[in-house]
Amino acid sequence: MSDVLLVRDLVERLTGWLPRLMPPGARRDALVAVLTDRFAAVDTPVTAAGCAAIERCAWTVSRHLALTFEPGGTGRPDTEPPGWPDPDPDVVRARAACVSQVRRTADGTCLISVDDLDAVGLAQPYLDAAFTLAQGSARVLLDLRANGGGDPATVAHIAGRLLGDTPAQLSEVVYPDRRRQWWTPALPTGTSLRQPVAVLVGPGTFSSGEALAYHLQARGRAVVVGETTPGAADHITPIRLAPTVLAFLPEAYVVDSVTGTNWEGKGVVPDVVSPPGTVIETAVTALG
């Protein structure tokens, strides 16, 4: 049984990584403490259910921590952060960079659904096409209800198409050893959309999807309609903790340049609450 990974051992590895990855502070310390207190004496083998229990405990402090249990996994545990793998261009093109819908309705509304945020270098042509089709519409509904997040550069690109042609700072991302600012791009005069905008959100809006909604709401550019989002404001990185467990652990947090804070643990709270079944009609009414 010596080769069986126990929950306490997995959590010891996890909490060993957190001080290496996260910026120092009360939240990092609290995350390590809550996981240690809960699981230090748990000597049962790691299972999918055990990973889920660790996640739920971590979410009380950091909503963006995930563990994937891979029973047949054979990968070697990481000793250094490997970073994110490069995206597969063919996969991104096959799904049109997750621009799943662009639709104009009889009342002049343009509905754009973006279900994830692929790397901006690959996603930009599809996003630009969607926003070009929105030119001349009466209003824009940006549907992020299925958006699980992705590239912050893609957040900045979409935000720029709605905030204006002149670059504007969206956020600063704080790492243990550096800070990175995110700005909207400079656009040719007249490129950005000026019509009223509503952003549709819900429980499926996560991470960078939440960031996009939050930044637009904070600047008064969009009415947010729907249900409160989960509240994941950390940037994460993949770490293999064991052959059978791949973790996605926080390595930085976001500070919005307008509010000076973020949506961690609180979620993006809609300006207008609406159940999914009537959210489009509610958003059109909210915009007038």
Automatic annotation (TrEMBL):
Single GO molecular function: hydrolase activity
Highest rank taxon of the organism: Bacteria
Residues of the Tail specific protease domain: 84-275
EC number(s) per entry: 3.4.-.-
Enzyme class: hydrolase
Stretches the record annotates as Disordered: 70-89
InterPro entries, alphabetized: ClpP/crotonase-like_dom_sf, Tail-specific_protease
Keywords: Hydrolase
Name of this chain's protein: S41 family peptidase
